[in-house]
Amino acid sequence: MKKRHLKIFIVATEQSGDNLASNLMKSLKSNSFYDCSFCGTGGDNMLKEGLSIISHISEFKYIGFFEIIKNLKKILSILDKNYKKIILFKPDLIITIDSPEFSFRLVKNLRKNNIKAKYVHYVAPSVWAWRPWRAKNVARLYDLLLTIFPFENSYFEKYNLKTVFVGHPIFNEKIDYNISNKNLFLALLPGSRKGEISSLLPYFEKISEYMYINNIKYDLFIPTLPYLEKPINEFVKNWKKIPIVTSNKKYINKLYKKTKIGIICSGSAALEVSIRKIPIIVIYKLNIFTELLFSFFIKVKFANIINIIANKEIIPEVTNHNLTNKKLINTLEKLLYDIDKQKKQIFEINKIIKTLRLKNNSSLNASYELLKLFKP
Length: 376
Fold this sequence. Notes:
This protein is 45% helix and 18% strand. The chain has 16 helices and 13 strands. Helix 1 (15-29) links the parallel strand 1 (4-12) and strand 2. The two termini are 16 Å apart.
């Protein structure tokens, strides 16, 4: 039986989106009835799965409202490049992942110019956290929304948008949960964007200094991405306690098994480390003006999704104007030397994580839902 050819344009602008999209591409390629070709914006993982790339995720390095405004010309140029490629590529399916500000503007332009395709967004914008009116806008733009948290569906279904919970991607990769009794490391994760890294690494340097001065036995390691390895190594080369910086996945997994605690930039990485049964602290730092602006719109008390779902602080958070060297080190001391607190965090997280898992992995579930759009 001859396979039906599908041309798919896919957009991911963050590392978590690149991971998600590459797994989705792999699942789509494994389908017996469709032959898929891919074009779009993404990262190295998507390239490995056969993406004909327009823009690389490394070009999306801006966080916060004012940072985006300052670099608006470049962002609009990337947007225009993607729009023009879609016109030439004539895809059957357009999938956007993460970065709603970029993705929604792109799809709005395409819809406005009557570009015929099926439109799908994967990973719902956090309308439950801020700007709830976006749910109605999403419903106008897309044919299908795929969510990774089960509580999100109701926000969009009330606007008659077909919305399907496909499970969380943290379960897509096989993880060795056997933690070594030899806790040798603290993991430091400063994010995947250059803006996040330049903002958070100075705080990690103070942790390095604190550990060196107090002769604390743990070593440091920073798991990162290939294109960030060189700038991070350059930044840490004069630290009192120099961390291991690596993008090698096998080596990262090996080090995680010997990790006592993770200090992590708020985002998907927090879940990815938590699932390994490693206690964590979440940190984040926005430009003070961006933080002030966002404070008028934010509807939730917490930055981390586990805390948001639980509506209490399971994972310690030190963010924005509260993020100081003193507060971060105090928070680290409280968790590092309190075994009961570590165990309680892992126990509470596991209860919530279980609700995010389905029988099949999220990529397979998502691919089934996408291909249903083309069934006669």
